[in-house]
Design a protein that fits this description.
The protein has 295 residues and is an alpha+beta fold. Helix content is 68%, strand content 10%. The protein has a 4-stranded mixed beta sheet, with helices on one face. It is found in: Cell membrane.
Length: 295
């Protein structure tokens, strides 16, 4: 089991512990807002399990049926997590709307709030771990899980403050109103995850800043070539595919062109770790006089 898979397994353990603590807080208080917070933790557990499975699949090497590897499996995990978040938001709204019409006081708030606060602190620490490792490993599954957990942290802080305020002021309608706000918040979070993951499944290109870095590396390390054109990029999980055409003098030998290609591949790898570079070499009559010129 590699490092990302171990982190994903840790997410399952942490999510299960947080779920238990938040449901205990709900049982102690009967708060609809704390119930909504606990229900979101159910989604965290399911999402952590999905991320673990996706990372195990994505780690498989390329084979005859999957010559480009299995790295896109991570996007399916992120899409599934977004769908689960939407379902959780609907469930929370169904619980909160009747309670908003007939609000009831929150019982024994301080013990329940203290337990929920402990779960929130644990979630915050783990969210920072997921985001840090996800960025280093360029893992869509871990980043999606980390963003979701971080959203859960912000939600929990708002819920804790609101439930405490409802208890102190006697404004009991604040409790279900907060639950509805939680539903809207996680619905927005789910939509963001689905949109980003679908972009990966649809072979969206790299962001403009990364493309600029690629073009700069190509321009600075293609000495001996004439131009480069038809640059195409796409993400597949933690792998970034880079393809382009390299125009060289027609009299250049295969060995000389291959040396330029090796130099370009090394330069792009320095800019994007784990990238897969494909270069199509063409003679000078194929030049299009646009694209990336050699410095």
């Amino acid at each position: 089991m590699d490092g990302t898979a171990r982190i994903a397994l840790g997410s399952v353990v942490v999510a299960a512990a947080v779920l238990g603590l938040k449901f205990l807080a709900y049982l102690l208080t009967g708060s609809v807002a704390l119930y909504s917070d606990a229900l979101e933790s159910v989604i965290n557990v399911a999402a952590a399990v999905a991320a673990l499975i996706a990372l195990r699949v994505a780690a498989r090497p390329a084979d005859a049926n999957h010559p480009y590897g299995h790295s896109k499996a991570e996007y399916f995990s992120a899409v599934a997590e977004g769908v689960l978040i939407v379902l959780a938001a609907i469930s929370i709204a169904r619980e909160a709307l009747p309670a908003l019409q007939s609000p009831r006081p929150v019982e024994a708030p301080l013990p329940g709030l203290a337990i929920n606060l402990g779960a929130t602190v644990l979630n915050g620490i783990w969210a920072s771990v997921l985001l840090r490792v996800g960025r280093l490993a360029r893992s869509p599954a871990l980043l999606a899980d980390g963003r979701h957990v971080l959203t859960d942290v912000f939600t929990s802080v708002g819920v804790l403050a609101g439930v405490l305020l409802a208890s102190l002021t006697g404004l009991h309608w604040l409790d279900p109103a907060l639950a509805l706000l939680v539903a809207v918040n996680i619905l927005w979070s789910g939509w963001g995850l689905v949109r980003e993951s679908v972009g990966g499944l649809m072979d969206a290109g790299v962001d403009p800043q990364t493309e600029t870095r690629i073009r700069q590396a190509m321009s600075e390390h293609a000495e001996g070539a004439l131009e480069m054109h038809d640059l195409r990029t796409r993400h597949a999980g933690r792998v970034t595919f880079v393809e382009f055409h390299l125009v060289v003098p027609g009299t250049m030998t295969v060995q000389q062109a291959h040396t330029i290609c090796d130099r370009l591949e090394d330069a792009i790898h320095e800019q994007i770790a784990g990238s897969a570079v494909t270069i199509h070499v063409e003679p000078q009559e194929k030049a299009k006089h646009h694209g990336v010129l050699v410095l």
